[in-house]
Specification:
globular, alpha+beta, 9 strands
């Protein structure tokens, strides 16, 4: 059991997907700046072509800015021309949840971190092969970790890449 009183739920790649406890969540949220808070907690969107990770071409992993769960690998990133970092597949399908979003007069699929439920962006069916998916993600929702560097572990879970 975790300190949330829940039995840990592991993803296929070996990461604990148990939601943060209330105290852990408050600690994680206290570290956010205003723009991060707006996007991650209030489902906002950063301006296109302004995100710090848009032009990143380094090898590594893109993790959730709030809880550190790895969400996308750099090798799945592609240039979509939309103004936001785009990926054709998640790190692990279990790490990203899809939620119907009918806001702003349209129906879209919102993507959230499966562990902390923070808003990441949206999923569209216009990406490249092999998936034809485009995960359009806000830079402020992500934390980039170069290959060879340790993943962030703000929850002290000691997760591993499987």
């Amino acid at each position: 059991m975790t300190d949330t009183g829940q039995i840990p739920h592991a993803s296929p790649s070996g990461f604990d997907l148990t939601a943060p406890s209330g105290e852990q969540r408050r600690h994680l949220e206290a570290d956010l700046n205003g723009g991060e808070r707006d996007v991650l907690l209030h489902h906002g969107t950063e301006a296109p072509f302004c995100g710090g990770l848009l032009d990143n071409k380094e090898d590594g992993v893109y993790a959730c800015r709030l809880c550190g769960l790895p969400l996308f690998r750099a090798k799945a990133k592609f240039e979509s021309g939309t103004g936001w970092p785009s990926f054709w597949a998640p790190f692990d399908e279990a790490h990203v949840t899809a939620v119907r979003d009918a806001s702003h007069g349209m129906v879209r699929i919102e993507t959230r971190c499966a562990r902390c439920d923070s808003h990441q962006g949206h999923l569209f069916p216009d990406g490249p092969p092999p998936t034809r998916n485009r995960y359009c993600i806000n830079s402020v929702s992500l934390r980039f970790v170069r290959d060879g560097e340790p993943l962030p572990d703000p929850l002290g879970r000691r997760d591993r890449i499987g």
